[in-house]
Structures are given as structure tokens and as C-alpha cells.
Design brief:
heterodimer, A: 93 residues, mainly alpha, Non-ribosomal Peptide Synthetase Peptidyl Carrier Protein, Chain A, B: 379 residues, alpha+beta, Butyryl-Coa Dehydrogenase, subunit A, domain 1, Butyryl-CoA Dehydrogenase, subunit A, domain 2, four-stranded antiparallel sheet, 10 strands, Carrier domain-containing protein (chain A), ACP-like_sf (chain A), Acyl-CoA_Oxase/DH_mid-dom (chain B)
Chain lengths: 93, 379
């Protein structure tokens, strides 16, 4: 499953962010924060994409910048959120 | 929620607010005084605890019910400053605490906030860091038992009457926005000094500057992790932008009703002024703004209720309601002619209040910028 997730997230990062840095190649370890590819707004965009694409909810404890450092970490966060099975967790419904 | 429950919640809140929150408003506005009676009444009606779990002194109402109550409240309550004071307390401060405080800290502070005995302020802006909050100069130095805060916050709603401040400061200046952290600072802490600021509108909401000099804050008062402050701020701002201005849809409805009355009764050139297209069109636009705002509010609420991110929609809603509110008040003054411009009708106060809506929680220009950034149009 994580290979499929990785492919979807990689595609999204390629389409939406990597065009700004044609000098870099996106692999599992590329430091997205350190290279300035994801800033705080970028993290919000990726969060919204993940929640939509994988029907998961990223809670407050997921939303730390370290969780968006590289593709590998992002995939691990999605896998963990999926296994919590908290899609559509009603917050204040 | 059925239609009849919706309208009952709205009607109850409207009646209660009209009966208990408007007394002496003209004088309170002139003297820039806090509407303590209105605050107490709102607390008794449960408005301050709607988001807080029952175990912590709140009523944990579903978001949809909260919004119906707020719409009715906004229609009945003519004191927009009181609405801002309540909004900062609930949407900015309680959001930070509900989602980022430890269980012990929640138990210590949320019951007082839910009952309204303690008022909270959300201290972000600084003289040199308004729109650009990541540039804040307030520092939090680590000590053996926690932190020492130093800096100056300003334009903070509720600061002069608050029992606690939610303060954002940098724990790691070299890390920029990733070095920010958030703290709960009791107003009585040594080294905290608040001065009141007068303003052109929303005058009953007490605004102040907070001086923090060597203020000791224990580690247990930190919200979330060290360095998570900017994420916490974005989270609070999403809730505030989405829902703080919801009552203003009620407020705009009240102002619009007055315009309808005026259009029917005021006669010039031998007919009611509502017969002139340029007058009736103003009222049609008012109605459109309210209805579109309501539809967007429901969309944001539905997204927020799933627990998913709603920052982009929140900025759109904030932008729409704040711009709509100001335009509606400008047009209401125009439609009432000279009487609208005088103090007699209170419409000039509504207009002075509405101007603030385009500045707090991020200006209209900043909301447009955020939406464009979240759409991936610009960096
Ligand atoms: C009624 C009221 C209540 C408030 N309550 C609080 C509170 O409770 N807590 C708190 O911390 N603060 C509060 N504030 C402060 C508020 O958040 C700031 O005023 C606001 O963020 C704007 O900052 P500034 O005033 O420094 O304006 P500046 O940032 O100096 O902006 C000045 C002008 O430049 C424009 N501008 C700035 N940057 C950009 C850009 N990148 N693109 C386009 N235009 C730009 C702005 O839109 C504005 O028109 C409150 C303000 C008001 C009016």
C-alpha cells in the first residue's frame, strides 16, 4: 500500500512544487523543508491534498513540520493516519 | 438538525441578545467601555462554553447548533464590540487550548473560560510584526523550569480585561516561523503590564498592548511542542477566520431590515424611496451578500466538522463577510441620508465597527494572498 501512496504523493509534489526547483530530483530523502520546497503554506496545501486523496484526517499532533521533511516521512504519516481509521472523524459535527 | 430546531435556536438567541446585551450601548461606545452586563448574559446563555467538553464546564454543542445560535445572537446584539470580544475568547483562544493544551492545563483553565469567569486574549501582533507574524521579536528563553518571555504585543483584543493571555513567542529565532512556540501566560504574572488602546470602532471590545518583561512561564503552560507555534497559530486563525464573523451575518440582516423599513417609509419626489431602482438595488445587494455568506458558512462548517483542514475556505469566508459587512454598512448610511450620518440612528457606529473587520484576523489583502498561495498561484 505504501508504494501506491508514495506514487500518488510524489506525483502531487512533482506537479505542484518541484517545478520551482528544476535543479533537484525528488527522491525519498530529499529535504523538502531545508531546500525551501515546502514552507508553512506548502505544508497546509499538502495536508489538504492528503486528506482529500486518502480520506484521512491529520490531527494536531500530525501537523508538525518534521512530518513533512521528506517524501518517506510524509508517506509514513499517511500510513499511520490510515491505520488509525479516522476518516471523517467528527470533530464538532 | 431540522429546520424548526435551527430557527428555534436562532430565535432564542436573537431574543435573549436583544433583551440583555444592548443596554446603554451608545454610552459604552462613546466611553470605550466594556459591556460587562452583555458578557455576563452571554456567559449565562452558554455562548462561551459551546465548544468546550461537558466535563470541563462546557456544553460541547455540535458546530451546526453553535452557528445557528451565533447568527441569532448577531441579529439581536447591536454591540459588535461584544461580539468581537466573545469571538477572540472562543475562536482564537479556546481553539488553541482545546487542541494543543495538556489535559492538566485544559482542566486548569477551560472551566473558567467556558463559564466566562476568566477572559482570554490572543497575543500575536507586535509593533513591528502585524501581517508578517513570522517576524515577531518576542522571545522565550529556556530555563531549568520552563521559559522566560520578553517582548511587546499590541492591538490585542481583551488584553485589558483578560485573566490569561495566549502568547506567541520565538524559542528559536534562527528557525523563523518554525521557531515559534505558544504559551498560556496568566495576566497576574510578574512582569506583565497591559495598557489600553482607544479605537475608531468596536469600541466596547477592550484592546491593549502587553509588555512582557522577564515573565517566567512554567513548561506545563506551553501549548503543543516547542517550535509548533506557527502551526498552532494557523489552526487558531482558521477557526477565527471561519466563525468569528458568523454573527455579522445576523448583524447585516438587522441593518438590512432597517433599510427595508426606511425604503418603504421615507418619501421623496412623491413616492417611497424604495421605488427608485438605485435604492432598491442597494437592498438587493445586501440580501445577496448575506445569503452567499450563509451558503459559504455552511460549506466551511461542513468541512470543519469532518476534522479536515479548512484554511482556504476559512480565508474566503472571512474575506467575504468582512467586505460584505463594511459595504452593507456604507450603503445603509447612504440609504438613510443625513440621519444615517448622524449619531441618532447608530448606523455610523455600525459602519465604524465594520471597518475593523477588514483588518483583524489578517487584512483583506492578506486573505487574498493566502487564498492565492493555497491555490498554488503564488508563493
Ligand atoms: C479590531 C482589531 C482587533 C485586533 N485584535 C487582535 C488580537 O486579538 N490579537 C492580535 O495579535 N492582533 C490583533 N489585531 C491586530 C491585527 O491582527 C493586525 O492589525 C493585522 O494583522 C494587520 O497588521 P498591521 O496592523 O501591522 O498592518 P500591516 O501589516 O502594517 O499592513 C498595513 C497595510 O499593508 C497591507 N499589507 C501588508 N502586507 C501585505 C502583503 N504581503 N500583501 C498585500 N498587502 C499587504 C495590509 O493589508 C494593510 O493594508 C487586531 C486589529 C484590529 C483592528
Amino acid at each position: 500500500m505504501s508504494a501506491e501512496i508514495q506514487a500518488v504523493v510524489r506525483q502531487h509534489l512533482d506537479d505542484e512544487f518541484m517545478f520551482m526547483r528544476p535543479d533537484l530530483v525528488l527522491d525519498d530523502q530529499l529535504d523538502l523543508l531545508g531546500e525551501g520546497i515546502l514552507d508553512s503554506i506548502g505544508i497546509l496545501r499538502v495536508t489538504a491534498f492528503i486528506e482529500d486523496a486518502f480520506s484521512v484526517v491529520l490531527g494536531p499532533s500530525d501537523l508538525i513540520s518534521e512530518n513533512f521533511r521528506d517524501l518517506g516521512t510524509i508517506v509514513a504519516v499517511i500510513v499511520a493516519a490510515s491505520s488509525r481509521g479516522q476518516a471523517d472523524r467528527p470533530a464538532e459535527s | 438538525m431540522t429546520v424548526s430546531v435551527r430557527s428555534q435556536l436562532q430565535a432564542d438567541a436573537r431574543r435573549f441578545a436583544a433583551a440583555r446585551c444592548n443596554s446603554g450601548l451608545e454610552q459604552l461606545d462613546r466611553e470605550q467601555a466594556f459591556n460587562r452586563a452583555g458578557w455576563t448574559a452571554a456567559a449565562e446563555h452558554g455562548l462561551l462554553g459551546m465548544r468546550v467538553p461537558v466535563a470541563l464546564g462546557g456544553t460541547a454543542r455540535p458546530l451546526g447548533e453553535q452557528l445557528e445560535i451565533l447568527l441569532g445572537f448577531g441579529e439581536g446584539c447591536e454591540d459588535n464590540g461584544l461580539i468581537l470580544a466573545l469571538g477572540a475568547h472562543v475562536w482564537a483562544c479556546q481553539s488553541a487550548l482545546l487542541d494543543y493544551a495538556s489535559d492538566d492545563l485544559k482542566a486548569a483553565v477551560l472551566p473558567g473560560l467556558a463559564r466566562g469567569h476568566v477572559i482570554a486574549s490572543h497575543a500575536v501582533s507586535e509593533p513591528g510584526a502585524g501581517s508578517d507574524v513570522s517576524n515577531m521579536a518576542t522571545r522565550a528563553r529556556t530555563t531549568a523550569s520552563g521559559y522566560v518571555l520578553d517582548g511587546d504585543k499590541t492591538w490585542v483584543t481583551n488584553a485589558p480585561i483578560a485573566g490569561l493571555h495566549v502568547v506567541f513567542a520565538s524559542t528559536d529565532p534562527s528557525a523563523g516561523s518554525r521557531g515559534l512556540s505558544a504559551f498560556v501566560v496568566p495576566a497576574a504574572s510578574s512582569g506583565v503590564r497591559v495598557t489600553t488602546i482607544e479605537k475608531m470602532g468596536l469600541c466596547t471590545a477592550q484592546m491593549g498592548s502587553i509588555e512582557l518583561r522577564e515573565v517566567e512561564v512554567p513548561s506545563r503552560n506551553r501549548l503543543g511542542e516547542e517550535g509548533q507555534g506557527f502551526t498552532i497559530l494557523q489552526h487558531c486563525m482558521a477557526w477565527e477566520r471561519a466563525f468569528l464573523l458568523a454573527p455579522m451575518l445576523g448583524s447585516m440582516t438587522r441593518v438590512m431590515r432597517r433599510c427595508v423599513e426606511q425604503a418603504r417609509r421615507r418619501r421623496q419626489f412623491g413616492q417611497a424611496i424604495g421605488e427608485f431602482d438605485s435604492v432598491s438595488n442597494l437592498i438587493v445587494e445586501m440580501r445577496m451578500r448575506v445569503e452567499l455568506g450563509r451558503a459559504l458558512l455552511d460549506k466551511v462548517a461542513a468541512q470543519a466538522a469532518t476534522g479536515r483542514a479548512f484554511h482556504e475556505l476559512a480565508s474566503m469566508l472571512k474575506l467575504h463577510i468582512s467586505e460584505a459587512w463594511q459595504q452593507t454598512c456604507v450603503d445603509a448610511v447612504q440609504l438613510h441620508g443625513a440621519r444615517g450620518f448622524t449619531r441618532e440612528l447608530g448606523l455610523e457606529r455600525e459602519l465604524r465597527d465594520a471597518v475593523g473587520g477588514r483588518i483583524f484576523s489578517g487584512t483583506s489583502e492578506i486573505q487574498r494572498r493566502i487564498i492565492a498561495q493555497l491555490m498554488g498561484v503564488r508563493r
